[in-house]
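Need fresh eyes. Consider my entry:
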Amino acid sequence: MATDYDAPRRTEADEETDDSLAQLTTGRNETQSAAVDIDEPDAAESFDLPGSDLSGEEFTVRVLPKQSDEFTCISCFLVHHRSRRADPTSDQLLCRDCAG
């Protein structure tokens, strides 16, 4: 008879602690609680970080209209310079990023 020396050896104590699947399932169901965990986003709303109140701030951004040497990509809807056009000979206004 061949003996596998690499296999873990089992003792009598190991055999006594083996439980059947039914016993493990019932034990797990008994230990579970009916309490509902609080979602992390709900808990995070209660924290106020210093400097996070921007209600008194006024942001001003200068917006320029689309220039004559720019185009709006038909895929990403961003305004690019004409040098960013994927195929300048075609009628499709597609940027290199979207064509790639």
